[in-house]
Amino acid sequence: MTYQNPPTTPRKSATFDDYTLSEIRRAAQTGIYDIRGGGAKRRVPHFDDLLFLGASISRYPLEGYREKCSTAVTLGTRFAKKPIELKIPITIAGMSFGALSAGAKEALGRGATIAGTSTTTGDGGMTPEERGQSKTLVYQYLPSRYGMNPDDLRKADAIEIVVGQGAKPGGGGMLLGQKISDRVAEMRNLPKGIDQRSACRHPDWTGPDDLEIKIQELREITDWEKPIYLKIGGTRPYYDVALAVKAGADVIVLDGMQGGTAATQEVFIENVGLPTLACIRPAVQALQDLGMHRKVQLIVSGGLRNGADVAKALALGADAVSIGIAALVALGDNDPAYEQEYQALGTTAGAYDDWHEGKDPAGITTQDPELMARFDPIKGGRRLANYLKVMTLEVQTIARACGHNHIHNLEPEDLCALTLEAAAMARVPLAGTTWVPGQGNGSL
Amino acid sequence: MRTIDLAKTALRDLNQDLHRQSAGTNEARWEVINPMGSHAVAVGVDAPITIDIRGSVGYYCAGMNKQAIVTVHGSAGPGVAENMMSGEVRITGDASQYAGATGRGGLLVIEGNAASRCGVSMKGIDIVVKGSIGHMSAFMAQSGHLVVLGDAGDALGDSIYEAKLYVRGTVKSLGADCIEKDMRAEHHDELAGLLAKAGISGVQTSEFKRYGSSRKLYTFNIDNADAY
After folding, report:
1. What is this model's ipTM?
2. Which residue among A83, A402, A405, B30 is least crowded, i.e. fewest CB within 10 A of its CB?
3. In a mutagenesis test of the A interface, which of B125, B219, B221 is the best target, namely the one with the most A β-carbons within 10 Å?
4. Hey, what domains does chain B have and what are their CATH numbers?
5. Where are the domains of chain A?
6. Helix axis angle, A276-289 to A237-247, nearest 10°
7. How large is the average pLDDT for residues B65-94?
8. Do A220 and B219 touch (CB under 8 A)?
């Protein structure tokens, strides 16, 4: 009689999981790193790890559908003659014409305008479609200066100097040749069809002292009318925010690692920068230490998806938020309606991120005329407006439940955390305790 | 002629006055005295006027200039004529770093020397430097012309696109993808035109060498990784 070992279930490594193995094989096959769009996909501490406590005996709630809960936000009150007035605290992040089709840019403008908020240009200049459909348009001032000109600067309602972004703080970008149509090439002063490098640092200033002078120049050119935003990636938020205040910013846009990009290296997206949740409190602390909280407004971006996320960001001290990936999804990006085509591209709806290749079945992240024709900017704008409306209603619902008649009255004391990591990052107590990690022992 | 004394007038008032000018203005000649190294002097002007600045200026003088003819009778700090669209900016002294950065049109003449990164990311501007230029000049230069009568520092034209560089003196080193190119008849004609436009005489185009892109790095290729 022979003895047989009992069979064991085949066991895959947690370290060398299927995705990791596939990436090793892909690298071995191609000899080049993976490029993709979007933000960090790995699990990091996020707004899901926070909960609102709601009203109780010690807190008095407001009546839903009856009592007013204001959502209006004013941005740029520090120096600008003409601050930005928004009806809702959710803005549309900068995304370039080039990375996105002209129709998609137009739709972002339409949706934002219906909802009473702002949209933002991107690396590639201002298109007439976007300006024409955007009641409030923020003009990005980027290291590449593609399309930069004083006429568009004056047409803008605000100027956003981009120092970095959450998906790739410290990195530039590359718009691959296949997306460089005649129009994109002309706007960027480069030949059609070649890869276009977006610089990682500005060409004519270095460091915070120079930045202060650069901001002064932009104010002088625009007669001190426009609010000057400063966008930074989440790296050293306390110090960067302090330096932004010192340099004279009216508004600071702080983008965590879940914030999207049109294209960069996967290794960069997943391994450089801080989660959005980890950025907010140090940034707010810097503003408070300088006596500038609510005077220099803070816009937080990077992975915001719904009204709960917005409410949590506001409760932690942000004045407003910004959305990018979520706005594209609202327009129709990664829609399961195109599942067959996503599969033909080797992916699936919800996972498609090769935006740089210009083959987007939804016609949003492409310059291909046939694909672009699939996208209706008017319908897209309505979808975005609907989504923004829902998010705003959700924020109001939570704010009322916490007893606040303005969304800016949300505060850290409204929150608790489900995990130690989130409690430490958000500086709110672990649920069911008074313990804030790093801030004493607390007690039940 | 309007004379503005920056010792008595706020910079903001000067720039706003200049912004009020347009084609056909009766105030076509301006003089700025006592600039005392101020930043952002005469920025964002968009009118066919002449502006003479008597003295040296700080950062970003004549930034984003359109149409105006601006002369700095002195030296200029960093970023002079940055993102200029059209018109002419002339510096009788030296210019600091980033001169003509990202400029999209017009003519920038520097009668002295220019420091590092002259013409960085230039996008159509013509720059003529009578003296020498510092390192990393014409970095990622997209289009336009950079003419240097003196020498060029290290890494000239690094990652250059379609800009054309003419250097009369020595080039310490060329940056990635920048090579010396033949001076054909059309290049002699083009250079002669640029020198004439800048008001420079007494030099021969045959004294210059031409530099531009080898276009090997235009499309990302992993085999070129060592070049970066």
Report:
1. 0.96
2. A405
3. B219
4. 56-227 (2.160.20.60)
5. 45-426
6. 50
7. 98
8. no
